[in-house]
Amino acid sequence: MKEIKIAPSILSADFLHLEDEIKKIEEAKASFIHFDVMDGSFVPNISFGLVVLKSVSKVASIKIDSHLMIVNPMKYYKEFYNLGSYNVTVHVETVTLEEFKEIAKFAKENNKSVGITLNPETSIETIIPYLEYASIVLVMSVKPGFGGQSFIENSLEKIVFLNKFKDVHKLNYKIEVDGGINNLTSKSCIDCGADILVAGSYVFSSNNYIEKIKELKHGNL
Known about the structure:
eight-stranded parallel sheet, alpha/beta
């Protein structure tokens, strides 16, 4: 039975006590810190960037998974790696295939991971040429840019497609899902083939991070 990895999104954490929040999710056996980067252009909101990443990487003992919701990831991706990200995920809407291959080459040379993702309204076929170069494929199960949204049900079809495509073409990427993840939707995602689940408010709005992360790994306990 494969291990399901949980990546709490610190966009939902208490920023007045961010180091404590990071330690709590580490103690709860999270696998990654999910770091949502928003520029106010590709998505409506603005979140945080390199300065916060540098600080987080100094106190984190688990890997940082950065999701770049920005219009020009080619300008910044090296800095996100160099300042502490293990994985950097970019949107297919913002990079050409050749640009993504450049990011993937840099990641491989530095023993890092690279991800590709797409907005919910973008056809899954759009990312097919990118899949052989990706370490992670992120399925957005909400519209990017806001926390606390409801899970988009047809995201499950994308997970199934990506899982079958990986098997048929003997690829090695992990399937990550982000948006509306709770103890119910997590089980549906896992059953469809997801490997990594991103959760924000479900974890950080609770009083027991250990219990919530355990629920997400196993679904509806």
